[in-house]
Amino acid sequence: GLxxxxxxxxxxxxxxxRVLGAAAAAVAALGLGALLFAGPELDRAVREKSFIATSNxxxxxxxxxxxxxxxxxxxxxxxxxxxxxxxxxAESHDAEVDEQTPVAHNMYLEVAAELGLPGxxxxxxxxxxxAVASERAVRHAPTGPVRAEAVAIQASLLAVLVTSTFLSExxxxxxxxxxxxAVAAGSRVGRAGADACPARDQ
Length: 202
Fold this sequence. Notes:
Elements: H1 2-11, H2 17-73, H3 83-91, H4 107-140, H5 145-163, H6 173-196
């Protein structure tokens, strides 16, 4: 997600390469310092994280497969809001029988499983409206702080959308607040353009 956001900022010319280079150098210096002063502790932490990461990958595969089966079985209405948690044990054949509150760890699959394909289409429509509105703000403000603000909103939304491939983010504030900010930015430049037009004779 961070890589996608930084790449977008570079592509749109908002983040200068020299700033990125300075940040990368600072991170490299911090990493080298950590290796020098806490090498054994970091090595142990990396080994532990590797074990946890393998377990996380296996768990996500199970949950993605269960969500995909729910979409296939209930393509129109889905299993209902919050239904993934209720149906997961049966769809996974009790693969994680002790898990009390499972999520799909993929926003797109979970929304499609719970709301069906029509609901998923409406959900992606909200994201598309935000993308179009923010791009309108960028195009109507080719320079200055308004453009930088709109591109920052786009980069943040892109980061959320990328990380949501591995997380269930549909219930959390970032997705919805960034979509609202994108629409607000698009509306603001639209109003500014309308105000700039000369008034027509009555």
